[in-house]
Specification:
Chain lengths: 319, 454, 348
């Protein structure tokens, strides 16, 4: 169906002052096709959340571009830009506790998008809000209640309704389930899946739970310290990782299966994630990589396609 | 467990797992209100504040006494004193009563506020006499009091005192003078209780009786009632307190309201815009904080030049607003910086919200809790500042009453007529305490919500 | 206590908790946070207590450690015996301090669990000074040694640094060093890796495992992550709404799950075994309100197999073969449904 949104060498640095730059996202190129779910994983400092926000314009782009349906999006957004794109792309936020305004009723929160875009009568807005409340599994009389009266899972549903009421095509889900209990995570994931099917959505699913990302996504991308290190079909990346970091990540992911776990060799790596402020030259993973070569410390590997496979890897071992 | 039957183990019919919420919906303010109500101390303070506001607004309606009117007959009278005056004939001069019975220093007739007439016999070895009047009996240190008259020979052995006679007890001392006219330590003393009297003409003039009333000499007439007593100029203290309340509360509530409003606007703008603009704005606020407060208050007052007949309320208000807004601005800016990072701001941005909408609809309402608490604490601070400035004479100008200036006047007669100090000071203390406790209670009630405590 | 659990006791368990009940007075009423929890831990073994938020797992271990502030909290019933000696409500057992010396504890968020104004070395030395009478200098030297044991590089330099100079993973190691300073017989770890990245989590779990092998201490691991449980636990206690609903070895609980909640949890999690792919099946509804706990089984409103009796009466612990028990009416003799046919099982 063609590409929906493409990030080309998207870069976002934060200036800490005193010549210190946080390389949060560094030349990440990623294409997402229509109706696809791309999962984005990484640990803290990987820049995955920053990437999602920069993609939608919540952060200004330090470099690179974002192209949506062939149209290049602005480098720096003003409210008018957001207004124009609100019906095309939206975001579902991580923290259910701070992503809803505690002073607004649920009805006001969900209906905000409609009120900002269309001049509908209050009763039309109300009808749509009720419709969406039921779509996400809540009840109509919840409209007049306040966020603090709901559980985490219910608040995430409210956040989903708010994001989807404008019927966007592309939704970035920024760690939507990290703050929820296990039994509730499945509720939200299933809901997202259903809505994706009925509305034909394209999702960028950002999370740090590898198992969940593999379950949800068609393709999976792995980020480390601001760079994209691997990209491919979710199952293939999970069961056959080509980048050493991906291997370590998957190896560290505990599986709810005692025999499997106890039989598994320890793949824990030494050392800590370096600070994204003074990024080492060469491959960022070099200081912790179990398969490091000399060239890794000198030359930064490019993201290249693996022969005969639908896979992109940034590693000297592969090239 | 023998009561378990097969039916016990039958499957449960389909349970509707509802997402309904049992407890009633409470908005932020309703929840805060119920917490406040549960806090007894804060509730009592709230009632005191409400009573105070009613006192200020409706008091003069209920007690329509002119605070500037002087009741000469009742100068510096504490509350609850006898306020009757006996009707007497008009004053006629007196030159001693011959053949007065008794010996030594004695009253020629009943002591009234019209005249106190004393007569004595010459003291031993006296070449003359001097008459003193004192509020206290003469002690071993021989402080006789105020000299009233001096007689350098023994011919005149009587004296009539008509000077500022207030009802109450006076001590008259007659001291013997030696040949050279200097006082000796030989004296006689008498305590005199002065009774309040008034003449028919005065009573009519002051409106204490009407023309038609039939009164005669010897009748007792009631003077105006002053529930809290009078001050050193005979002005009704209650009326003055009400008028003073108006001034104190006008400044005490008006100034904080204005400077908090300004602080909110300034702080929100700085917090939202961020970057250099924010830095610049905050440096200016720091500059204002660095100005020495008292000095500038005084400077403002002088600069505005309080002319005669002007009360000085407005300049004080302006000065307070101009000097006190930075604290609120900083506070609000801090809140805004925090709120800016919250998810719902980004969510609104993505939905296409404009900047003014974001600030007005999302950011400022979430700072209101903090702002309200700030205002509630700023009020007692401003009331006290105004009282203090008026107390040192740098506040509102007389005759405009203010609790602070009333306290200033009351201090002068603290030992003799303490009520003149006591009531204004009490009102200041109560008001400041009530607002502070209310502020405490509000902060506790709103704080839980501010931290999104479940 | 059921027969199955008593058997476990005979193998000289280190810590035995029996019918622990804890409640809290709050603004909205009294919460029955823990409603009768029993388990035991042996030397050298790891017990994992699994449950979701609000099930009472943290409160359980905090009350054993005496960390519950007694107003508003209250231990209303139950006992906890360390080597046969009661420790609930006591601060010493046979002359040794329980908290910090006999039992060490590490917490979830290392950033907030350590004092930001003290150096790491001083903080690790503190229990030694308090419980073992070390001098400040000796304590500090020992602290450096403990940091090395926890695999922190440049331990001597690190000991002089402050918490803000450490990363999350290193802080957790420092906390482990601190907890182990007095050579406790039990280490309680309350969600030790929840706030950490998955690669760091692997390091910390490996470290804990190694230290256990070296010192022979028992570990009580609180977590909500079934993967972590599978990796670390020898025995598992599954908690729901203040009670233990299933208890047994890791194999029993994972492969022969006997409680609908355990099964529900497994079905709600994605698995990466290509042979056992399934659609995620969430558990509808939410945990019961512990202000007024239900008369019957706390899980029954959400249980697809609920029977009449489940909402009327609390189920007892039913022994299954081995040391495995589940608190569910389905296992009662009179129950017609056989769990083996109901539950998603795999035998390995």
């Amino acid at each position: 169906m063609g590409d929906l949104i493409e990030a080309r060498k998207l870069t976002r640095f934060f200036d800490l002052g005193g010549n210190q730059l946080v390389h949060a996202v560094d030349k990440v190129s990623l294409t997402i096709g229509a109706r696809e779910i791309v999962g984005l994983v990484g640990e803290s400092g990987s820049g995955k959340s920053t990437f999602g926000k920069t993609l939608l314009g919540l952060h200004d782009k330090t470099d690179g571009e974002v192209i949506f349906r062939g149209e290049t999006l602005p480098q720096k957004y003003r409210p008018a830009d957001f207004q124009k794109l609100a019906t095309k792309m939206q975001m579902i936020f991580q923290d259910p506790y701070s992503s809803l305004n505690p002073r607004m009723t649920v009805g006001e929160i969900i209906g905000e998008g409609l009120r900002l875009h269309f001049s509908l009568s209050p009763s039309d807005v109300k009808d749509q809000v009720v419709d969406w409340l039921e779509k996400v599994g809540l009840q109509a009389d919840h409209m007049s209640r306040y966020p603090h009266e709901f559980s985490g899972g219910q608040r995430q549903r409210i956040g989903i309704a708010r994001a989807l009421i404008l019927r966007p095509e592309f939704v970035v889900c920024d760690e939507p389930i990290s703050a929820l209990d296990v039994s509730v995570q499945a509720q939200v994931v299933n809901l997202l899946g259903e809505l994706k099917e009925t509305m034909g959505l394209t999702l960028l699913f950002i999370a740090h739970d590898l198992s969940m990302v593999r379950y949800v996504s068609d393709r999976m991308a792995v980020m480390y310290l601001g760079s994209l290190v691997e990209l491919g079909k979710a199952d293939e990346v999970y069961f056959n990782p080509k980048h050493p970091y991906t291997g370590v990540l998957i190896g560290s992911n505990p599986e709810p299966d005692p025999n499997l776990e106890k039989g598994r060799a320890s793949t824990s790596i030494q050392g800590e994630i370096p600070s994204p402020v003074n990024v080492p030259c060469g491959c960022r993973f070099a200081n912790r990589c179990p398969k490091v070569l000399d060239v890794c410390r000198e030359k930064t590997p490019e993201l290249i396609s693996v022969k005969d496979e639908d896979r992109l890897v940034a590693c000297h071992l592969v090239s | 467990m023998s009561d378990l039957t097969a039916a016990s183990f039958a499957p449960l019919s389909d349970q509707q797992l509802s997402q309904s919420i049992a407890r009633p919906s409470l908005s932020y303010w309703q929840d805060a209100w119920s917490r406040l109500r549960a806090n007894k101390r804060a509730l009592v303070s709230l009632y005191i504040v409400i009573v105070l506001l009613l006192f200020t607004v409706f008091g003069p309606v209920v007690w329509p006494v002119d605070p500037a009117m002087q009741d000469i007959d009742q100068i510096s009278q504490p509350p609850g004193t006898d306020r009757t005056a006996t009707l007497v004939a008009e004053y006629e001069p007196w030159f001693g009563t011959s053949g007065l019975p008794g010996a030594g220093l004695r009253l020629a007739e009943k002591a009234t506020s019209q005249a106190v007439r004393l007569q004595w016999d010459a003291l031993d070895d006296a070449s003359g006499h001097r008459v003193y009047r004192n509020l206290f009996p003469v002690g071993p240190e021989l402080s006789y009091g105020i000299p009233m008259a001096e007689f350098l020979n023994n011919d005149t052995l009587y004296f009539e005192d008509r000077l500022d006679l207030q009802p109450g007890r006076f001590y008259y001392v007659v001291v013997a003078l030696d040949e050279r006219g200097l006082i000796t330590d030989r004296y006689q003393s008498i305590s005199v209780d002065v009774e309040r009297v008034t003449t028919l003409a005065e009573a009519l003039e002051r409106g204490l009786i009407t023309e038609s009333e039939a009164v005669q000499i010897g009748d007792k007439i009631a003077l105006a009632w002053h529930p809290f007593g009078t001050d050193y100029l005979g002005r009704d203290l209650l009326a003055r307190l009400m008028a003073g309340a108006r001034v104190s509360l006008f400044i005490g509530i008006g100034a904080p309201f204005l400077f908090v409003l300004f602080g909110v606007v300034y702080g929100s703008a700085a917090g939202f815009m961020g970057g250099r603009v924010d830095q610049l704005m905050m440096r200016f606020a720091d500059f204002v904080v660095a100005l020495p407060f008292l000095l500038f208050m005084i400077l403002f007052k002088i600069a505005f030049g309080i002319g005669p007949g002007e009360s000085g309320v407005f300049p004080m208000l302006v000065a307070l607003v101009v000097l006190l807004w930075p604290a609120t601005a900083r506070l609000v800016r801090g809140q805004i910086l925090q709120i800016r990072e919250q998810g719902y701001i980004s969510a609104s941005q993505l939905l296409g919200a404009s900047t003014p909408y974001l600030i007005m609809r999302h950011m400022i309402p979430n700072t209101l809790g903090v702002v309200l608490v700030t205002v509630t604490f700023a009020i007692p601070s401003a009331i006290f500042t105004e009282a203090f400035l008026s107390f040192i004479g740098m506040g509102v100008a007389p005759p405009t009453p203010s609790w602070g200036s009333m306290s200033n006047e009351g201090i002068k007669t603290m030992l003799t007529t303490p009520h003149e100090l006591f009531f204004p000071a009490l009102f200041i203390s109560f008001t400041v305490l009530a607002f502070n406790l209310l502020g405490d209670g509000l902060r506790d009630a709103l704080d839980a919500r501010m931290r999104n405590v479940e | 206590m059921t027969a199955a659990r008593e058997e476990l006791e005979c193998a000289t368990p280190l810590l035995t908790v029996e019918d622990l009940q804890v409640e809290f007075d709050t603004f909205g009423g009294t919460v029955q946070a823990v409603r009768g929890v029993s388990f035991s831990v042996d030397q050298g073994r790891t017990l994992a207590i699994v449950g979701e938020s609000g099930c009472g797992k943290s409160v359980t271990v905090q009350s054993i450690m005496g960390l519950i502030p007694t107003p508003p909290g209250r231990i209303t019933a139950g006992s906890a015996r360390l080597r046969g000696h009661e420790i609930l409500g006591r601060s010493t057992v046979r002359g040794k301090e329980i908290r910090g010396a006999e039992i060490g504890m590490i917490f979830q968020d290392p950033m907030t669990s350590l004092n930001p104004t003290m150096t790491i070395g001083d903080q690790i030395a503190e229990p030694l000074q308090v419980h073992r009478g070390y001098s400040a200098r000796d304590g500090f030297t020992e602290a450096i040694r403990l940091l090395e044991l926890s695999k922190i590089p440049e331990a001597a330099k690190r000991a002089r640094q402050y918490p803000f100079e450490f990363s999350g993973g290193m802080l957790q190691r420092a906390m482990i060093a601190m907890a182990l300073s007095c050579k406790p017989s039990i280490l309680i770890a309350d969600e030790p890796t929840t706030a950490l990245d998955v690669t760091i989590q692997a390091q910390i779990l490996d470290l804990m495992h190694e230290l256990q092998k070296e010192t022979g201490m028992a570990i009580i691991l609180i977590t909500h992550d079934l993967g972590v449980v599978a990796r670390m636990a020898d025995e598992v206690a599954v908690m729901y709404a203040g009670k233990v609903v299933e208890y047994g070895s890791a194999d029993d609980v994972f492969y022969r799950s006997a409680h609908p909640y355990t099964v529900g949890l497994k079905e709600a999690m994605p698995t990466n075994d290509p042979a056992r792919q399934h659609e995620l099946k969430p558990i509808d509804g939410s945990p019961p309100d512990l202000f007024s706990p239900p008369a019957g089984c706390g899980y029954s409103p959400r249980c697809p197999y609920a029977m009449q009796i489940c909402s009327d009466r609390q189920p007892q612990d039913h022994d299954l073969h081995g040391h495995h028990s589940a608190s569910c009416w389905l296992h009662h003799a009179q129950s017609e449904s056989r769990p083996e046919t109901l539950f998603f099982k795999d035998a390995r």
